[in-house]
Write a structure and sequence with these properties.
Layout (H helix, E strand, L loop, with lengths): L3 E7 L2 E6 L2 E3 L35 E6 L2 H9 L21 E5 H9 L5 E2 L14 H6 L4
Antiparallel strand pairs: 1-2, 2-3, 4-5, 4-6
């Protein structure tokens, strides 16, 4: 049996849930695709850059990790490369894909450390804080 629930979380965000999976849109208004299942990413650890009102960090930007970005993030106080196995976090390495906080990506952009972005896997709520042109300029090919 398929279970479908549709609700409007905010006036500008319509959520559709099919079999307990939230269906969201990317920055192009198309269905959001998976960012990464290896390592598993996302605020909900569902592989996608989904978000809701409890996600204070807005983990909505699907990035392709670079060593340059990992060093920037570490210097900014967020060590993403060290494993925290007690939390199921293997640590990130160059080439991994990861759902990053939108404001962290914007900060990296301002300091010329912004990693490439998988636009089809980047949640539309990202556009509340980052211009689409900036994301497109950093699109992974």
């Amino acid at each position: 049996m398929i279970s479908v629930t549709i609700w409007q979380q905010k006036e500008d965000l319509l959520l559709i849930q099919i079999n307990n999976v939230v269906m969201a849109n990317n920055v192009f208004g198309e269905p959001l695709i998976t960012c990464s299942n290896e390592p598993i990413t996302g605020y909900f650890r569902d592989g996608c850059c989904n978000t809701d009102q409890t996600d204070a960090g807005l983990h909505t930007v699907c990035i392709v990790v670079t060593e340059k970005f990992l060093q920037f993030s570490l210097a900014a106080g967020n060590d993403l490369s060290t494993p925290l196995l007690q939390f199921g976090f293997p640590g990130l390495k160059a080439g991994d894909k990861w759902c990053l906080c939108a404001l962290r990506w914007k900060e990296a952009l301002q300091h010329n450390y912004a990693p490439k972005v998988v636009l089809e896997a980047t949640h539309e709520k990202t556009l509340d804080v980052i211009a689409l042109n900036d994301l497109i300029k950093h699109a992974s090919r």
